[in-house]
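Researcher: I'd like a structural prediction for the single chain below. Treat it as a standalone chain; there are no partners to consider.
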Amino acid sequence: TTPPKRSWRKEAIIRWLKSHNIVVPEKAVKAELLEIALDNLPPKKYEIDEAAKKIQCWFAVIF
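Model: Treating it as a single chain, here is the predicted structure.
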């Protein structure tokens, strides 16, 4: 999913955190919530990396 941005409302950031099973402090300001969200972003996945993994497996079978 799309990571939270500074333009998001505080409630939207809280929803994003909860949907990713991240504990939300009760009395946190928007900046703190954004920092928590950015610290817990899922790793980026690129299609080219997935394609390279498939090719690497295919070459491993040949050699």
